[in-house]
Amino acid sequence: MQSNSGEATTHGHPRALPEAQSPQTASGKMQGVLQFLDAALHNWRAIRLLRERQVSHRSTDLASVERAYSSMSAREFRAVNGLQAWANRRAIPRILAHVPSLRPWTCVDLGCGSGDSTRVLLRHAPPGSSCIGYDVCGDRIAEARAHDYLGPNGRPARVRFVRQAIDEPLRNVEGFRVPEHSVDVVHSSGVVGHHLRVEELRRLGDEARRIIRPSGTVVLDAGPRLRIATLVETMRRCGFRRERVLRYCWGNPRGLVAFRPI
Ligand SMILES: C[S@@+](CC[C@H](N)C(=O)[O-])C[C@H]1O[C@@H](n2cnc3c(N)ncnc32)[C@H](O)[C@@H]1O
Fold it and tell me: What is the distance in A from the centroid of ligand 1 to the CA of 100?
């Protein structure tokens, strides 16, 4: 939703715009297209160079995924993740705009990488929200820890990071399990649809059902390895109903699906 001032609003709560110009204006659209082309070019180059080193991150095998992401420098990861970062700035604010935001959220960001999705998530969460980011790759977690995270009011947001697989029971930084029904937003972007199989999604879905508040929202990404229909059906079996689907662009299997607990 857009207010007259150009700020996204939800349930009366002002939200910060993404760093880019509003995608609604002609110059904003042009800027978006140029950023997409730039990200696509860097992505293509980086993947070609990684292939020469026989590194491929396009896998659902956790050990291979960890090895591939760990063998990328920070710069290579930024190039590989550039299209995802482009999509994050457009899709995450739009899907979060429908989440009730009368009080701060407790969030988890599954497969946070170097923190791009976490940053967008917290910029569009109510002031005072907090997040734990999870990733299997230690180098990406170290980069994520080095960044600053701001809330919609420009004040620093509370964020912590934990290195672990996202289909395992989720733990906080002290190593205790995240308490039952304590989380308002479970989020993943660029992870589930690329790196998970149905059996891992099933474990993730059961854990999400355990930690989500009755009023909470789970946002997971679909992609080439795990399509929207499979995502929706698996999450239904875990006790969630589909609330909203947002494709990154028309006809694309990639996108975000928002779920509410049944
Ligand atoms: C394409 S990046 C997306 C990063 C971030 N969500 C973003 O949007 O910028 C995918 C990330 O998911 C992590 N990942 C993939 N499978 C995982 C798993 N099963 N458990 C934990 N992390 C995983 C990778 O290490 C990588 O950092």
Answer: 26
| pLDDT per residue of the chain (262 residues) written in tens, 0 to 9 | 333 232 333 333 334 444 445 667 888 788 888 888 888 888 888 888 878 877 677 788 898 999 889 989 999 999 889 889 999 999 999 999 999 888 999 999 999 999 999 999 999 999 999 999 999 999 999 999 999 999 999 999 999 999 999 999 999 999 999 999 999 999 999 999 999 999 999 999 999 999 999 999 999 999 989 999 999 999 999 999 999 999 877 767 789 999 999 9
Strand residue runs (E) in 11-142: 13-15, 106-110, 130-135
Question: Ligand 1 within 6 A of 193 CB?
Answer: no
From edge to edge, which strands make up the β-sheet containing 183-188?
Answer: 158-163, 130-135, 106-110, 183-188, 212-222, 255-261, 240-247
Distance 192 CA to ligand 1 centre (A): 8
pTM for the whole structure: 0.88
CATH architecture of 88-261: 3-Layer(aba) Sandwich (3.40)
> Among the atoms of ligand 1, which is closest to the Cα of residue 196?
19
> Measured from the CB, is residue 70 less than 6 Å from ligand 1?
no
With a 6 Å cutoff on the Cβ, whether 118 touches ligand 1 is: no
Q: Is 111 in the pocket of ligand 1 (CB under 6 A)?
A: yes
Using only C-alpha atoms, the chain has a radius of gyration, in whole angstroms, of 17
Domain ranges of the chain: 88-261
- State how far the alpha carbon of 207 is from the alpha carbons of 48, 173, 241, in Å: 37, 17, 15
Q: Which residues pair with 221 in a beta bridge?
A: 256
Say if ligand 1 is within 6 A of residue 248 CB. no
Q: Whose CA is nearest to atom 1 of ligand 1?
A: 190
